[in-house]
Amino acid sequence: MRWAEHFRSPGLWRRGRAPAGGPLPADVTGIGVAGEGVSVSAVRRVGDGVEVRLVAVTPSATVASISGPYSSAVEADLLGRSSEQAVDLRHVPLRPWEIRTLHLR
Protein backbone atom coordinates (compact mmCIF):
# COMPACT_ATOMS: atom_id res chain seq x y z
CA MET A 1 0.00 0.00 0.00
CA ARG A 2 2.91 2.32 0.75
CA TRP A 3 4.03 2.17 -2.90
CA ALA A 4 0.54 2.88 -4.21
CA GLU A 5 0.57 6.20 -2.35
CA HIS A 6 4.13 6.87 -3.55
CA PHE A 7 3.07 6.77 -7.21
CA ARG A 8 -0.07 8.89 -6.85
CA SER A 9 0.30 12.08 -8.85
CA PRO A 10 -0.82 15.54 -7.83
CA GLY A 11 -3.58 17.15 -9.88
CA LEU A 12 -2.63 18.90 -13.10
CA TRP A 13 -3.55 22.50 -13.71
CA ARG A 14 -2.87 25.18 -16.30
CA ARG A 15 -3.38 28.92 -16.10
CA GLY A 16 -6.29 30.05 -18.28
CA ARG A 17 -5.95 32.49 -21.17
CA ALA A 18 -9.18 34.46 -20.65
CA PRO A 19 -8.88 38.11 -19.66
CA ALA A 20 -8.87 38.73 -15.92
CA GLY A 21 -12.08 39.93 -14.31
CA GLY A 22 -14.45 38.27 -16.78
CA PRO A 23 -17.63 36.42 -15.81
CA LEU A 24 -17.24 33.02 -14.22
CA PRO A 25 -19.20 29.97 -15.38
CA ALA A 26 -22.12 28.79 -13.27
CA ASP A 27 -21.40 26.41 -10.38
CA VAL A 28 -21.67 22.73 -11.21
CA THR A 29 -22.42 19.95 -8.75
CA GLY A 30 -19.90 17.14 -9.00
CA ILE A 31 -19.56 13.71 -7.48
CA GLY A 32 -19.11 13.36 -3.74
CA VAL A 33 -17.88 10.14 -2.14
CA ALA A 34 -17.84 9.64 1.61
CA GLY A 35 -16.89 6.66 3.73
CA GLU A 36 -14.28 5.60 6.23
CA GLY A 37 -11.37 4.00 4.35
CA VAL A 38 -12.92 4.58 0.91
CA SER A 39 -10.82 5.94 -1.94
CA VAL A 40 -11.82 6.90 -5.50
CA SER A 41 -9.32 5.46 -7.96
CA ALA A 42 -10.97 6.49 -11.24
CA VAL A 43 -13.73 8.69 -12.65
CA ARG A 44 -14.54 8.82 -16.36
CA ARG A 45 -17.41 9.59 -18.70
CA VAL A 46 -19.16 6.52 -20.12
CA GLY A 47 -21.96 7.13 -22.62
CA ASP A 48 -24.53 9.36 -20.95
CA GLY A 49 -23.20 8.73 -17.43
CA VAL A 50 -20.08 8.50 -15.32
CA GLU A 51 -18.03 5.50 -14.21
CA VAL A 52 -16.62 5.63 -10.68
CA ARG A 53 -14.18 3.09 -9.25
CA LEU A 54 -14.15 2.79 -5.46
CA VAL A 55 -11.49 1.05 -3.38
CA ALA A 56 -11.78 0.00 0.25
CA VAL A 57 -8.33 0.74 1.66
CA THR A 58 -9.06 -0.86 4.98
CA PRO A 59 -8.73 -4.34 6.52
CA SER A 60 -12.37 -4.25 7.63
CA ALA A 61 -15.66 -3.86 5.77
CA THR A 62 -16.87 -0.33 5.17
CA VAL A 63 -19.69 1.58 3.46
CA ALA A 64 -19.43 4.33 0.85
CA SER A 65 -22.03 6.99 0.10
CA ILE A 66 -22.14 8.74 -3.28
CA SER A 67 -23.78 12.11 -3.81
CA GLY A 68 -24.23 14.23 -6.90
CA PRO A 69 -26.58 14.84 -9.80
CA TYR A 70 -27.25 11.14 -10.37
CA SER A 71 -30.42 9.20 -9.68
CA SER A 72 -29.33 5.63 -10.35
CA ALA A 73 -26.30 3.38 -10.43
CA VAL A 74 -25.52 -0.11 -11.69
CA GLU A 75 -22.61 -2.42 -10.98
CA ALA A 76 -19.87 -2.79 -13.60
CA ASP A 77 -16.89 -5.12 -13.88
CA LEU A 78 -13.25 -4.00 -13.94
CA LEU A 79 -13.40 -3.79 -17.75
CA GLY A 80 -16.30 -1.33 -17.53
CA ARG A 81 -19.06 -3.66 -18.72
CA SER A 82 -22.36 -2.74 -17.06
CA SER A 83 -24.56 -5.28 -15.36
CA GLU A 84 -28.21 -4.87 -14.54
CA GLN A 85 -27.54 -5.05 -10.79
CA ALA A 86 -28.82 -1.80 -9.26
CA VAL A 87 -26.82 -0.14 -6.47
CA ASP A 88 -28.12 2.19 -3.75
CA LEU A 89 -25.97 5.34 -4.01
CA ARG A 90 -26.52 6.15 -0.32
CA HIS A 91 -25.25 2.74 0.87
CA VAL A 92 -22.50 1.00 -1.14
CA PRO A 93 -21.00 -1.79 1.01
CA LEU A 94 -17.37 -2.69 0.42
CA ARG A 95 -15.52 -5.74 1.72
CA PRO A 96 -11.93 -5.31 2.97
CA TRP A 97 -9.65 -4.22 0.09
CA GLU A 98 -12.51 -4.55 -2.41
CA ILE A 99 -12.59 -2.65 -5.70
CA ARG A 100 -16.06 -1.79 -7.05
CA THR A 101 -16.88 -0.11 -10.33
CA LEU A 102 -20.21 1.69 -10.70
CA HIS A 103 -21.95 3.40 -13.61
CA LEU A 104 -23.92 6.46 -12.46
CA ARG A 105 -26.78 7.96 -14.45
Can you describe this structure in just a few lines?
The chain is mainly beta.
Would you kindly provide a written description of the structure presented here, covering whatever features stand out?
- Strands 2-3-8-5-6 form a five-stranded antiparallel β-sheet, with no helix packed on it. It has a three-stranded antiparallel β-sheet with strand order 1-4-7, with no helix packed on it.
- It contains one helix and eight strands; from the N terminus they run H-E-E-E-E-E-E-E-E.
- The mean pLDDT is 89.
- Strand 5 and strand 6 (82-86) form a beta hairpin.
- The relative contact order is 0.23.
- The two termini are 31 Å apart.
- The protein has a domain at 32-104: Immunoglobulin-like (Sandwich).
- The chain is globular.
- The protein has 105 residues and is mainly beta.
How large is the count of helical segments? 1
Given as residue ranges, the uncertain stretches (5+ residues, pLDDT < 50) are none
- Would you give the CATH topology of the domain at 32-104? Immunoglobulin-like
- Kindly provide the radius of gyration, computed on alpha-carbon positions and rounded to a whole number of angstroms: 16 Å
User: How would a textbook summarize the main sheet?
Assistant: 5 strands, antiparallel
In round numbers, the mean pLDDT is 89
Strands across the major sheet, in which order? Answer: 2-3-8-5-6
What portion of residues belong to β-strands? 35-45%
Shape label: globular
Distance between the termini: 31 Å
Structural class: mainly beta
